[in-house]
Amino acid sequence: MSKAGGGEVVAGLVGAGLGAVVEAVKAYGPDRILLADDPRLRGFSAQAYSKVAAKMLEGLADPKAVLAPATAMGRELLPRLAAEVGGTVAPDATELSPREGGGLVVSRPIFGGRASVQVDLPALPCVSLRPNAFAAEPRPGSSPKVENVAIPELPAPALALKVEKTVVSRGDTPELTEAPIIISGGRGLKGPENFVLIENLAKVLGAGVGASRAVVDAGWRPASEQVGQTGKVVSPNLYVACGISGAIQHLVGMSSSRCIVAINKDPAAPIFKIANYGVVGDALTILPALTSTIAKSRGVPVP
Amino acid sequence: MDVIVCVKHVPDAETRLRAASNGKWIDPDGVKFTVNNTYDEAAAEEALRLKEKCGAKSVRVVTVGPPRAEEALRYVLSMGADEATHIETPADALLDPLTVARLLAGVIKTLPHDIVMVGKQAADDEAGVVGSALGALLGLPSYAFVTELAPDAATKTLKMHRYVEGGEEHFQGPFPAVISLLKGAADPRTPTLPNILKARKKPLTKVSLADAQTRAQALPGAPASGAVRSFALPPPKTGAKMIEYQTPDEAAEKLVKLLREEAKVL
Hints:
The complex is a heterodimer. In chain A, α3 packs across α4 and α5 (about 195-205) runs parallel beside α9. The mean pLDDT of chain A is about 90. Chain A has two domains: about 1-160, Rossmann fold, CATH 3.40.50.620; about 180-300, Rossmann fold. Chain A is elongated. Chain A is of the alpha/beta class. Chain A is built from nine helices and 15 strands. Chain A has helices at about 1-5, 20-25, 45-60, 70-85, 195-205, 215, 250-255, 270-275, 285-300; strands spanning about 10-15, 30-35, 65-70, 90-95, 95-100, 105-110, 115-120, 125-130, 145-150, 160-170, 180-185, 210, 240, 260-265, 275-280. By secondary structure, chain B is an alpha/beta fold. Chain B has two domains: about 1-215, HUPs (Rossmann fold); about 235-265. Chain B has helices at about 40-55, 70-80, 95-110, 130-140, 195-200, 210-215, 250-260; strands at about 1-5, 10, 35, 60-65, 85-90, 115-120, 140-150, 155-165, 165-175, 175-180, 205-210, 225-230, 240. In chain B, the strands form two sheets. A nine-stranded mixed beta sheet of chain B has the order 9-8-7-10-6-1-4-5-11, with helices on both faces. In chain B, α2 (about 70-80) links the parallel β4 and β5 (about 85-90). The mean pLDDT of chain B is about 95. At the A-B interface, α3, α4, β4, β6 and β7 of A face α3, α4, β7, β8 and β9 of B.
């Protein structure tokens, strides 16, 4: 976007101990990096981070837009920043285009992906971007200048947030909301012991593992894998629903996936109505066949 | 301790969506609106638990919405909230979430509040903007994606868990604060008939849009808002392309070929 408009891309980094992050961001070739690296910013405090980001914006001549990933942090930070600086906000964008007269026009899914809106953002748009909706291109050989930004005076509560510990729930599978492919299982797997079939297919595809509410409620799978209204909302390129009938509360969590495959014994299961491809059959026999077909074609061992 | 919970009256998750004739939002005609089964209902439950477990003085439920939104307030009153405030907008008003946050903040500022609770996002526009914007406008810390919380009234500190990519953080922060709840510790309670009857008599204050706008003028920052340009429903799904097969291996081969060559996702 900046290339088209002839502007600069400025990366703003806020936090503590950001050395490795600075290096990672450099590889994507921003024109400048503004860095607020301060031990007082160790835990993510939306109040503190938004004030630091506002200060970074103050130092720019004519900022056109603020972009962040639609992660938990990005989605929490941007509304706060927009309210602080008199900007506008749209979360979870899937498309961006310049708006006549300034600002951006942003498309975003609503109603659990059952509809979408285009939103006009006239004043400084603060937009979080849906994972997988935009591609990041590395620009090797770039060497942006890193400029330190001193943190402004902050109200005491902003710096009083203390992180006691971080509990990592993911093993070697990618984070569900960011995974480009998700293999998800439901009651049709018949028991927790059969989820190894889901995990095997996920392994050969480098995919995330999801689950329906029913199997999470039954204790077969951890809550961190639940896809749906009370779990995670995901939009991978490929979502494979195995033994999931397709209750509405599950559909709102995954129906905006680019391509949906349903494997279910019941040809009348509602999941087939929203799927792109359907296999009527037992997930317990289809899954191993799928895993070995893909493993062989990729030349990796069949798990 | 005074707790305020903000809710939004939204279309039921199973409602069939149709576009309104102005092409900007859904046609509300024939749509069932509710707070049941939403993040807001979970926030209301958590607010009530704060009252019961931690001796909060009162729980007030606040909404911004058209006349029908009173139903959402009565529902939360019947769950056990003590008082309600309704910032009443015209039936066809389509408000930007930042505007909603300003209207709420202007009114909440004049009410006692130690904890302001909101759901992670509304079930219709799914913006998730109001919580942290409220924090900025009220000059309070905001904590989002919270899954557990326990306040310590003596130190005015909240011990919380929150969702982060790849796991969960256990952290603490001071209150007064605004909390956006991802999910509550317990399933929301179902109002009992006696409580539904009691809720009809609980105090419900109406604030006109003009009045709320006046109160919002005293807030910091310049008001700015986005506006919906167009609303679209995806083309109706024609149903899945079904794979015909004799053996599981044949099903797998056909499916992989389609995913590679037609859908181009493998």
